[in-house]
Prior knowledge:
Elements: H1 15-18, H2 24-30, H3 34-59, H4 68-90, E1 116-122, H5 129-137, E2 144-151, H6 157-167, E3 171-175, H7 181-189, E4 196-201, E5 204-206, H8 210-220, E6 224-233, H9 240-261, E7 274-277, H10 278-281, H11 285-289, E8 292-293, E9 296-297, H12 302-311, H13 313-323, H14 328-331, E10 341-352, H15 358-379, H16 388-417, H17 421-445, H18 454-464, H19 469-475
Amino acid sequence: MSTVAPVSLSAATDPDRRVPRTIAFAQWLDAKPAEVRRGLRRVLVLAALMPLIVLLAVQAPLLPQGTVLLGYGMLVLTATVSMMYLGFARYEDPSVHPMKVSRAENFPALPAQPTVSLLVAVRDERDGIEQCVRTMVGSDYPNLEVIVIDDASTDGTPDVLRRLASELDVTVIYKQVNQGKKHALTDGVRIASGDILAFTDSDCILAPDALARCVRALVDNPQLGAVSGHARALNADDTVLTRAQDTWYDGQFRVAKAAEATFGSVTCVSGPLAVFRRDAIVNYLPAWANDTFLGREFRFATDRQLTGYVLGQVWKGRELKRRYADDPLVADHDYAERPWRVGYVRSAHVWTTVPARFRPFLKQQVRWKKSFIRNLCFTGSFMWRRGPGAAALFYGHVLFVAVAPLMAVRHLVWAPAHGLYFLTLLYLCGVLTKGFAWAVAFKLSNPGNPLWRYRLLMAALGSLLLSWLLPYSLATIRKGTWARGAQ
């Protein structure tokens, strides 16, 4: 096997600095017996959330005669408190603490050290793909095959990949026609042999132990069909915008995904590090690659839709496989549909390049909202079956995203036009209150990291600008191509 050249991690990407390790008290708490550890953690989190809980209690009597803004604000604040309680008090890293399993559940166990296929699809990433591939090959998991799929790049990326293939233990597939990320990864899986299929993005780098931690979570918890790693911004120090996105990424993983993971229903195993059991996903890759929406091929929703196939295969899987029964990924081994859980591994660190300029940032947000719309039509049709907790988180988020543009118009356009400036002021205060809560959560999760104040900026961007993109995304949902390097 070829020697892997080391990839240096800067201060911005060093796991010990960007995501500080647990402080002494948390280490002491983590070593306690399970019931003691969980009980103490819940008490501490409730105490930290008490100011927000008191605020809700004070406002509750005003709700019957209150404005629409008061009801909306209380709903958003309640959702924020609930997610933070679940994410901090109830979540535990499945690679460290095995999950509770009902005796009625029966899932096939993985080998103690399963084989893993780690794949990445790339298009026009000449300047960044080498670092990505080297961190993939540099993963400290032993039974690993690395597969890179070049999706008809035109910028010299194939030349970089040929040089890497001659030096490293990596397999490269060169596609002549650009078909998009989903087709590219599916083509890679056709030659992959792993018991576990792991995907990353071409603008990401992995911590050396990230993949091993995800594999450990799947081995120790047979009920898990897939897990997501924990992503942060690789280029956080570049601009004010990248700093704000870094704090947002941390909250979306550390709080939102952790909250969903407590119900085994993480709804998006994100592209920077998405790890699946082969038997939980391989039969559905043909449906994923050929997904259509509103009569046309849909190239977005790559992460959400793939996760949806794991979450919903008990209800949707048989029909999806029937459509592609002749495809070798279905015909060679028809795996049983199971009620898999989907989790999140907080200790599996990965860093992704985020847009440093505003225009590419808006394009990314539009793509994500299109994915949200498409996935709502699929995952939304069955999430109510996965239990009240998972359903409340999913449909509550849908309600918030759907109503946000209306609330923005009402309080930022209609209210000032009618002289109701105080209503606008209350709305802005609510935005800042929510942003401050997320900023405090970031600061507690990342002691010593000064970026927490940028979370307020991201909250303002989300409510004052990004919410307006949903109607535009819906109107243009039939348009779009895949090329990460084009951002």
